[in-house]
Structure formats: C-alpha cells, structure tokens
Amino acid sequence: MNRRPFLKLVSALTIASALAASAATAETIRIGAVAPKTGPLAGGATVTQWPSIYLWVEQVNAAGGLTVDGEQMMIELIEYDDQTNPGETIKAVQRLATQDDAHFIIAPYGTGLNLAAAPLFDRYGYPQIAVSAITDQQPELSAQFPNMFFTLGTTTALAADVVKVLTDMRDAGQMGDRVAMVNVADAFGIELATAAKPLFEEAGFELVYETSYPLGTQDLSPVIKGAAAAEPDAFVAWSYPPDTFGLTEQAMIENLDVKAFYTAVATPFPGYGARFGAAAEGVLGAGGVNPDSPAFMEYAAAHEEVTGEKPDYWASATTYASLEILAQAIEAVGLDRAAVTAHLRESTYETILGPISFDENNSNPDFWTVGQWQGGVFKGVASRGRDGTVPVILKEGWE
Amino acid sequence: MSLTATDIRNLCLASLVFAICALLPLGDQGYWLGLGVTIAMFTALATSWALFSGPTHYISLATAAFFGVGTYVTGLGIDTLPFWSLVGLAGVIGAVLAALVGLATLRLSGVYFVIFTLGLAELVRQVITWVQNNSGQKGLYVLTDLDEAGIYWWLLGLSAAVFLTGWLIGRSRLGFALRIIGDDETVAAHSGINTARAKVLLFMVPGAVAAMTGAILAPRYVYIEPSLAFAPILSFQVVIMALLGGASRLWGPVLGVIPFTFLLEAVSSNFPNQTTLVIGVAFLVIVYLLPGGFVGLMGRINRHLNTREGA
Amino acid sequence: MDILITGILLGGTYALIAMGLNLQYGVARIMNLANGEILVAGGYFAFIAYTATQLSPILTIFLVAPLAFALNWLIYRLMLQPLVNRAKNRGQLETDSILATFGLSFIGVGLMLSFFGGDYFSYSFMAFPVELLGNTYGANRVLSFVMAVLICGALYLWLNRSRAGLSIRAIATAPASARLVGIDVKHLSALAFALGGAVTAVGGALISTYLTLDASTGVVFTLKALIIVIMGGVGDVRGTIVAALLLGILETLVASLLDPGLTLAAAYVMFLGILLFRPQGLFGKKPT
Fold first, then answer.
1. Prediction ipTM score
2. Which of A31, A207, C131, C232 has the most neighbouring CB atoms within 10 Å?
3. Which option is the CATH number for C2-277: 3.40.1350, 1.10.3470, 1.20.58, 1.10.10?
4. Which site among C30, C251, C271 would you substitute to test the B interface, given the most B Cβ atoms closer than 10 Å to its Cβ?
5. Contact indicator for C219, C227 with CB cutoff of 8 Å
6. What is the pTM of this model?
7. What is the dotted CATH code of the domain comprising A4-154+292-367?
8. What is the pLDDT along chain B (311 residues), one digit of tens a residue?
9. Helix (H, G, I), strand (E, B) or coil at B292
C-alpha cells in the first residue's frame, strides 16, 4: 500500500490553499470541512470522507473553479480535525462560521457528530448535506433543522432490505428460514437490530441465535461459535469496522456454513476485499454502488489517481455526490446560503450515483441498501430507486 | 458562622466576576460563546474534581462515568420530565453513585484508586449499553429549544455553585478535617477524625457535578451515543487542566482551564493535520516547565519577590 | 473444554498486551499511558513488512524488538529520567508520569497519523483453522499464544535466574534499599523500561495478525493492560500471566454461556472485585 501520493497531495493542497489565500482572497470560495482525523471514527473518515473532499476540491480547481454569477471562483478548503469529539465538532463549525467566514461547510462524519453540529448549521443558515448520518428520525430532524439534508438512507430501509434479500433467497428455495442475528452494542448497531428484529419475525424467519457484543471486543469466536451451534441458514451482523473484520475472520476459521453472510459497516471498504480476497466472495454488506456504471468507474479511477487510495463501495461515492450537489446549487444561485438551501429542496441534481433530489423531509429517497462481494468487487444487490442492481449469489464456503 | 470583612469582599468580588461572565451571550452569540461553554464546562468539572483530589491526593478518572450517566438521564427523560428536574435528578444519581463508589474504594490508595475509577467508567458504560440493547430502546435523540446561551448560563450557574460549595467546605469542620487528612492521614485518624466519612462526602461533590454537567450538555450533543458520552478522554482532560492550574487552591483549576482551552483552540485551528501531535508536545512542555501548575508558578514568583524585598 | 481453550488463547493475547507495561510500571515506576501506541506501532511495522515484502510477522518481531528497545530506552533517558530525578515522592512521580506519558501518547498518535495515515490496517496471516481436541481455532491466535508463552517464560527465567533480573526484582520490591546494596537503579530502570517497550511492540506485531488496528486504537490496549497489571499485582510476572488468563477465560465463559454483551462488564466486575478484596493485586505484596 502506497501512502506517499496521499501525503504529497495533502501538503500540495495545504500549500495551494495558502497560496490561493494570499494571492486571490477576493475570488475564492471558502469551503469548511470538519471530520475525524483521530479518535474512534478516524479509520472510517479516512476511507470515506476526506479523500472524496480532497478529490472534489482538486477537480473543481483544476477545471478553473466554480462559476458564480458569471465569474470563475477557485475553492479554498479549510479543514479541521474534530478528534471524534462532538464538543470539538461544535467548536470547529463555530470557528468556520464566525472566524473563517466560510461560504459553505461540508457536513461532518458520523450520525452523532452530524447531529451535534446541526443546531449550528441551522443557526448560521448553512445547508448541511449529511452523508454518513443514517437515522429514522429524518422527519423530526428536518422539522427541527430545516437546513439538514439526508443522502444515505434510513436505518429501517437498511434493515428492511436485508430482510427482503433474505426473504427472496428463501422463497426461491435457496435456503431455510433460520437466521442468526448479532449486533454491536453501540448506537447504530442497536438501532439496526431493533429495527430488523420485528421485520425478520414478520417475514416468517426464525431467529435461532440473537445476541449483542460490546464495542471493542477482542475475541469474537464465542459469537461465531454460538451462532454456528444454532445451525442458521443466514448470519446477519449489525457490526462496526473492527468487528466486521473480526467476525469475518472467525467465520472463515470456523468455516461457518451459511447460505448468506452479512456484516454491516466497513464491508464495502476496499480493505475488506484486500484482506479476505477470495473468501470475501458472496459476503453481503451494508450499502453498495453500481461499480459498472461509467460514472462510478471514472470517479474511482480519479479517486485512486489523486489520493492514492481506492474509494469504498458505498458512502465514498455518496460523499462525492453530496459535493457535486453543493457545487451545482452554488453555480445555479450563487453564494447566498438561503437561496442554495431553497434550491436544494426544489431541484434535481446530476451526480455520479444518478439523479438525486430531496423529498419533503429533506431526504434523498434513492439510495443503495445492500451490496455483495462478487468477483473482487462489491456490487449493489438491493436499493431504493437506483439502477444497476445485480442478482444475489449464494455464499458457498470460505475458500 | 461569622463573615469577616475579607470574606465579604471575596464574595462580592466573586459575584461580580460571575455577573460579568453571565453577560457574555449578550456580546457574542457565536464563536466566543462556544468557547465560553467549553470553559464553563471544564471549570465546573475541574474545580469540583480538585475539591476532592486536592486535599486527598486521590487522582480520580471517574469523571467520564458520571458525565455519561448525566447525559443518559437527560436522553432518557427529556420526553417526559422538564429539563431542570433532569439536571437535579442527574445530580442526585451522580451523588449516590459516587457515595457507593466511595464506600467501596475506601481501602484503596494511590494508583489502585486511579485504575479503579478508570474501570468504573467502562463498567457503567457497558452496563448501560447492554440494558439499552436489551430493552429495545432505539437511539436517543435530545431535541429541545435550549440554545447555546441557555446551556452557558446553566453551566455558569453550576460553576458558581461549585465555587460556593468549595468555599463553604473550606470554612466548615469538614474542610478542617480534610486539610489534616491531606497533610497526614495517620495523624488525622489518630486525632479522632472519621477520615472515611470525610472522603466519601467529598467524593460526592465531583460525582454530582459531573453528572449534572453531562445532563446540561446532552441537548448540545442532540444524539447520545455511548462511545461519545463515556469517552475516557474527558476524565484525562479534567485531570490535566486541574493539575495545570493547581489543585491545592479553590481558584487553581480555573487558571488551568482558561489557558488550556485557548491553547487547544489555537492548536486545532492552526494545525488541522497535526492537532494531536502538537497537543502532545504542548503537554510535555507544560509538564517539564510548569511543575505544580500555575499555582506553583505564582508561589515561586511570590517567594522570589519576597526574598528580593528582604534582601 | 472448548471454552477453556478459547479463553486461554485470549489470555495469551492479554498477556502480550500487559507484560510490557508490567515491567515498565513495576520496575521503572512509570505508569506509561503511551504503552498502547508502542503496541500499535509494532503492529504497523508488521503490517508494512508483510504487505510490502511478504516478510512473515514471526521474523518481523526480531526487527521490531531491538528498534522498540532502543526507542524506549531513549524515551526513558531523555524524557522520564528528569521526572524521576525531580520527584520528591512516589505520588509526585505518579502524577508527573501520568501527565508526561499522556502527552507522549498524543505525540505517538500524531506521528503515526502523519506517517501512515488514519485508516484501518489489517491483513490476513495464518487465518486458517487449527484443530485442538476436536475444536477449531485460528492458527494466528494459536501462534501468538505460543509466542506469549515463550516470551513470558523467558522473562520469568531471566528475572529469577540472572543477576540483572534479581537486581530488577529488588528494585521492584524496595527501590530505596536496592540503592543501598549497590544496585545501579537508574541504569536498570532504563533497561526495564526499554525491555517493557520491546515486549509490547512484539506483542503488537503478533496481535496485528488477527486484530484490526488503526492509529488511534492504542488507548484501548493501554486501558486493558493497566487493568491486567493492577489485577495481577504490580511488578510480578506470574501475577500478570494469571490475571491475563483469568480474564480471558472469564470473558469467554460469559460470552459463551451468558451473553457476549456482558463480557466487558463481567471483566470490569472481576477487576473491581479483586481490587476490593486484594487491593495489592493477586500476587502483589502489601505496600509498605
């Protein structure tokens, strides 16, 4: 793995933004970004959030900037590390809004940090196009914070489509109705498990093993052994990054014999495919994209060229799409934030994911929900309103 | 209890300072108010921490445990109870929890107490998430119309209460007993002081204050996640700030809180890619150049001036 | 039986995490909060060696150990020795070293971040099953357990048989008296600290074969190590091993028979219980 290009890029960007700041302050658009570079969520933000931001800034500036009221304006990126601490996120957004006079601020990373920042985006009138904030509370939240937009879907949709994928497999006679379901005992894991349980029961599945495990568990073999002993047809884990890797490795070692194996967050990370190679074949996970669409392929190639890293097969592309949306809204109505927010509510945007528009709850109704590793690529197998889903394949062993 | 002229002067001065601080939201609703919230929060936490740890020399890392409990009290109760009662409730729960912990840890000393309190924060967090997971409770959202200024006033009021408590303790029999315990616990025990009771009573103060701080800040976080509510880093930050200021005086910690907040702010705005690295270096500089904190530094300067005058 | 073996294997992991800190805290009297960062750095080294040159982690540890030894020796000599000299009593050294090593851990995270970036690093090494008494276990965990046994055994022998080891144990029990009988406390403290760092880094290299790490995860391991060291008794190799095994078995028992959601809670209950009934740890001597 070569990280040098990435570091070079970061220093180049720093220098470039410093130069831009001194040379042409009047003609730049100041865009603020705050997300974890350290702390528990840093691993995810480093894969999903930061590279897409760098890529977008690089591409916009390489093309001569954004056209605002007939004038070309370059982007100046102001970035802060919130150390995965909501208090720091709040301070950073405040700093961006009042000290740096940022024209726009890119939404933070993670549900908790996005919601901690929401009152400030609201007070200062910044549109907040949240990506990695998946919640069922979108109607309540958009009522309280009218500037907040949601792109990556809802908890229930994510859970419901897993149930749907498994139901289809069962109804096609590919497997029985015994499901083992586990979850990480932290916010998102708990929410997903709570949403999924009644759905599984409604669909006529039998939950033969059901448990939670704490965040940071170092040995997940009891979980996999417990699940294996219940002889399930499908294994579903509402998991977080370190345990997604841990559960998969244990399942490999135990040779967990299931027809469907699902782990949630981080399954679409390129690091997952790199680590498990052929064993990843057939693993289901949260999210997905249409990796064969020309738009995604072009994005992925640029992502790797500019940042030295591959994008993930879910939220990376959505993060980039959220920036495309922001750029198109700015080019349409200028730097007036209220006008941009109004434009976001009304218009449809062309993005690498396809067209995106927001409904009455400020949420994007078209998103990917379930994907699967097939032939070394994580492909979307279920979505709400997205084209390019591929058929699900059975998990056949771990070799 | 009688007040001397100096006492009255100090009380008036302190009230004046707090009154001036309370005016901050009228001047600025944004950036400086945000910093004000951070400072008020850590003033309450670090001052109450030093009330216990200053005289007893016990380093408690339990702040995150109480703070997290407080945020959960608000998170669970916000839909059914008024906010002010939740803050009070959090204070009571924090105090009771602290009393239990205090009773259990009396026999421990030094580093054992440090690690015990650290483990406590993790234990409480694990139990709460497990209960949440098994009770089918969905995510905790705290949506209120309490704004930044409101939170600031709440925290400022709490800090004032902490200072008042500290001042009253200092004048009471308990404070006298604590000073003796701090000098020499054996002597204290021999002179008939119930050291155990004194320590437990005192430990309830930071417990209650940290829980109340958590309860007050929950609306600011909007979404309560265990990994954020119980983040162990908070316990360490409080210790560092209190020690940087100096835990031996009531007003010591605040001398640490204010410069440290500005230092962190300067670092994170100027070194976005090396924030942690620069904070680490700043830390070492403080430890090596400022032993005994600002209180110690002022003591040395005073001594220096005095010897000059004497000579 | 299955539970017992799984628990013992996990105990081996915990021994690797805690053994280094035990040397550092027990002998050099430094409660090293930067211990976890050394562990993660060891893991990084193994990861890079494996992905770049296919060098097996079993060989990497022979590179990691001397490097970590040198680094930790320097840290002790340059950064911590002044604190030891300055401290008037045990309490002040404890406070100072908590503050200083906390700063060091930030520096550690910051350095790793700027050199390697912040994303997860994980690779597959010996992730195939091994059969023991009719049940299957990860080969990488079994390997790291065997290494843990070797390392702990070697340390135990060295501390109990060699002259330097005896002096180190003397320092751990009674630092003031050790000086009186002509033991070079300064030199040996530095040695113990450096050795502790080397053991931790080797542990990190081994653990990285089955755990997913990133630059910020060090603190998780520091906390675990502190708990094991205190539980076993400060400065006692046996105690740390027993505590690590107990913890591993307990967590596996609870996870298998009760509920995996309660494993960490059970671990902390055991830790708090041991502290209440034996405040000096399982094998610790009563503080004088």
1. 0.81
2. C232
3. 1.10.3470
4. C271
5. no
6. 0.84
7. 3.40.50.2300
8. 567 778 788 888 888 888 887 777 777 777 888 888 999 999 999 999 998 888 887 888 889 999 999 999 998 888 888 888 999 999 999 999 999 888 877 667 677 788 788 888 888 888 888 887 777 666 678 888 788 888 899 999 999 999 999 888 888 887 777 777 777 777 777 777 777 788 888 899 999 999 999 999 998 888 888 878 888 888 888 988 888 888 778 888 888 889 888 888 888 888 877 778 888 887 788 778 877 777 777 777 888 777 766 54
9. coil
